[in-house]
């Protein structure tokens, strides 16, 4: 007996089912095949092995000695494979891998993810942060929080937070400056990350076309969290998204001197591959985060 190099898994599966049911017809019903297709697969397996596996009689089949030896081992093998797949599937379904921008992870997700886990105690969360856009075809992640316009081919995207921006500073610094009455007053204070394009957009919207931002150091601190920390320490004015710092605003640690907010068309989005939109753990997180954020789109 000489097995072919490529194991005929389809034929083995058909034989196992026919041997267990002792009927080509019943095997076809279980597997969704015609009786002719079942007969063909078993014949293919017999030719591969070089031994008959069934004795064919009118309206009845029985196993040969070779079939008797093969059938229980195949039943055990397929059971082991099913168990292996189930264990892998269970492990994957219990771990939700999230890729997020650092600011969103630090300022919102880290403060609320405990609520998600209270609602879904069987789902563990693995969080990674980066300023780069994740490539779902190359990196292991179930979903991502991205900043942009929401137009990413092959991905389902839900807007979850508007990325509005406005100047913010500590109340103590505003008091030391004698109050902030008009936008031009901000230019008498240190401007944090003056090279950020948001500053120019906001001052233009506020009626100051040339605010002279070039006179300030062109520092780049990488995240809004860093800029906000400097502002909280009373060391300057930062241009921030109020949605990230609601607790600091409510507690009086950060002060928003003007109601004017701008938006450059880029917001925060929850994204995942189109093909995985019905995965239970992804559906669970999508429902949770869109319920939690008032501006989110389900």
Write the SSE topology.
Blueprint: H1 9-21, H2 24-31, H3 35-49, E1 54-57, E2 60-63, H4 65-93, E3 95-100, H5 102-119, E4 124-129, E5 143-148, E6 155-161, E7 166-168, H6 171-176, H7 197-205, H8 224-232, E8 238-240, H9 246-250, E9 267-273, H10 280-292
Parallel strand pairs: 3-4, 3-5
Antiparallel strand pairs: 1-2, 5-9, 6-9, 7-8
Helix pairs in contact: 1-2, 1-3, 1-4, 2-3
Any overview of this molecule?
- Helix 1 packs across helix 2, helix 1 packs across helix 3 and helix 1 crosses helix 4.
- The strands form 3 sheets. The chain has a 5-stranded mixed beta sheet. A two-stranded antiparallel ribbon has the order 1-2.
- The chain has 298 residues and is of the alpha/beta class.
- The chain has 3 domains: 9-90, Winged helix-like DNA-binding domain superfamily/Winged helix DNA-binding domain (Arc Repressor Mutant, subunit A); 94-163 and 265-292, D-Maltodextrin-Binding Protein, domain 2 (3-Layer(aba) Sandwich); 166-250, 3-Layer(aba) Sandwich (D-Maltodextrin-Binding Protein, domain 2).
- The chain is 42% helix and 15% strand.
- Strand 1 (54-57) and strand 2 (60-63) form a beta hairpin.
- The protein is rod-shaped.
N to C succession of SSEs: HHHEEHEHEEEEHHHEHEH
> Spans of 5+ residues with little confidence (pLDDT < 50)?
none
Q: What's the CATH H-level superfamily name of the largest domain? A: Periplasmic binding protein-like II
Q: What is the CATH level 1 assignment of the largest domain?
A: Alpha Beta
- Supply the helix-strand structural class: alpha/beta
* Residues in helix, %: 40-55%
Strand-residue fraction? 15-25%
For the largest beta-sheet, the strand count, sense and barrel status come to: 5 strands, mixed
Overall CATH architecture of the largest domain: 3-Layer(aba) Sandwich
The total domain count is 3
Number of helical elements = 10
Provide the spatial order of strands within the biggest beta sheet: 4-3-5-9-6
Oligomer: single chain
């Amino acid at each position: 007996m000489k097995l072919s190099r490529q194991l005929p898994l389809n034929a083995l599966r058909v034989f196992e089912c026919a041997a267990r049911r002792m009927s080509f017809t019943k095997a076809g019903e279980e597997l969704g095949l015609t009786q002719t297709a079942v007969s063909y697969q078993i014949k293919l397996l017999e030719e591969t092995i070089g031994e008959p596996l069934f004795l064919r009689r009118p309206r009845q089949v029985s196993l040969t000695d070779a079939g008797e030896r093969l059938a229980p081992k195949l039943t055990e093998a397929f059971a082991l494979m099913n168990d292996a797949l189930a264990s892998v599937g269970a492990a994957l379904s219990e771990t939700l891998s999230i890729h997020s921008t650092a600011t969103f992870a630090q300022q919102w997700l880290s403060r609320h993810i405990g609520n998600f886990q209270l609602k879904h105690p069987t789902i563990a969360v693995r969080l990674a942060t980066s300023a780069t856009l994740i490539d779902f075809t190359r990196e292991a992640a179930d979903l991502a929080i991205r900043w942009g316009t929401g137009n990413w081919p092959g991905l389902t995207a839900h807007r979850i937070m508007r990325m509005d921006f406005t100047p913010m500073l500590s109340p103590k610094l505003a008091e030391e400056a004698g109050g902030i009455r008009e936008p031009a007053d901000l230019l008498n204070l240190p401007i944090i990350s003056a090279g950020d394009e948001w500053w120019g957009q906001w001052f233009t919207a506020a009626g100051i076309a040339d605010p002279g931002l070039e006179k300030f150091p062109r520092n780049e601190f990488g995240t809004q969290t860093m800029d906000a920390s400097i502002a909280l320490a009373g060391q300057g004015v930062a241009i921030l998204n109020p949605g990230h710092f609601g607790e600091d605003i409510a507690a009086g640690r950060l002060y928003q001197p003007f109601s004017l907010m701008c938006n450059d068309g880029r917001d925060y989005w929850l994204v995942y591959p189109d093909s995985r939109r019905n995965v239970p753990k992804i559906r669970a997180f999508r429902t949770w985060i869109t319920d939690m954020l008032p501006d989110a789109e389900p």
